[in-house]
From TrEMBL:
Keywords: Signal. InterPro entries: CarboxyPept-like_regulatory (IPR008969), Cupredoxin (IPR008972). This is Rhamnogalacturonan lyase domain-containing protein. SUPFAM superfamilies: Carboxypeptidase regulatory domain-like, Cupredoxins. Residues 1-23 form the signal peptide.
Length: 261
């Protein structure tokens, strides 16, 4: 009986060790992106609204969204943050073992972009291959959706008021950002980035981001804003990072998002 008890104890210990090891394979990465302390916060100026003024300006002036910095804490909104392998090969991809199982089981999502008040919501959107893009027009005036891409077609469609348009094919992976606009209201623009892995996030109004179920180990983290990469062109390869479970909390990342002259 003693031998049986010892054997059962060993099996239980091995099972516990395996479970513990599996639990340590994934982590949550948290961070914050902030504007430099030594620079004045970019002013969000009113846009030049020239079409459908009664509707577009019904709630007041429309402010520029190309640089959204929180004046209270300098957090930057709409920075896309993602992980990549720890090298400088632009074709590198995560190994299958480094992709969390939940991503393989995910069902295609509906990625919705709306145009409620003569601005796109959201301005910056992340998606994955297989997702369906839906462009809504929840306003009382007609809008347009103009989109040119490498792998996801070219479109120039008018969307009647209180209607929507669905892209006819699922989204495919595309490395560069895809810019879209409304040709009826020329100040309206936005961006979609399509990733073939789950380790990506967009900063909120306080500059915060969170990437869940990331693999532990040494990787790189990339910061992109519509005005460019953190670190310029070389920044597309990101900065080295070591991820440890259960949570890796990074120091605030300083990012000057003002356009380069």
């Amino acid at each position: 009986m003693k031998s049986l008890g010892t054997a059962l104890g060993t099996v239980a210990l091995l099972a516990f060790s395996t479970t513990a090891l599996q639990a340590q394979q994934w982590a949550t990465v948290k961070g914050r992106v902030v504007f430099p302390e030594d620079k004045p916060i970019p002013e969000r100026k009113p846009l030049n609204v020239t079409q459908d003024k009664d509707h577009c300006l019904a709630k007041g002036p429309i402010l520029d969204e190309s640089m959204m910095v929180n004046p209270k804490n300098r957090g930057i909104k709409n920075v896309v943050v993602w992980l990549r392998p720890n090298d400088k090969d632009p074709k590198s991809k995560f190994l299958p073992s480094q992709i969390h199982p939940d991503f393989a089981k995910r069902k295609p999502a509906e990625i919705v972009i709306d145009q409620p008040q003569c601005m796109f919501v959201d301005r910056v959107t992340i998606a994955h291959p297989g997702d369906k893009l839906i462009v809504k027009n929840s306003s009382p005036v007609a809008h347009n959706f103009f989109w040119n891409s490498g792998n996801n077609g070219n479109y120039n469609v008018t969307i009647p008021k209180m209607d929507q348009w669905v892209m006819p094919q699922p989204l495919q992976f595309e490395s560069p950002p895809i810019k879209y606009s409304c040709t009826i209201h020329g100040w309206m623009t936005g961006y979609v980035r399509i990733f073939d892995h789950p380790y990506v996030a967009v900063t909120d109004e306080n500059g915060n981001f969170e990437i869940k179920n990331a693999p532990v180990g040494k990787f790189r983290i990339v910061f992109w804003h519509e005005n460019g990469f953190l670190g310029g062109a070389a920044g597309r390869f990101g900065q080295e990072i070591e991820i440890k479970g259960p949570v890796t909390e990074l120091k605030p990342t300083v990012f000057d998002i003002t356009p380069r002259q």
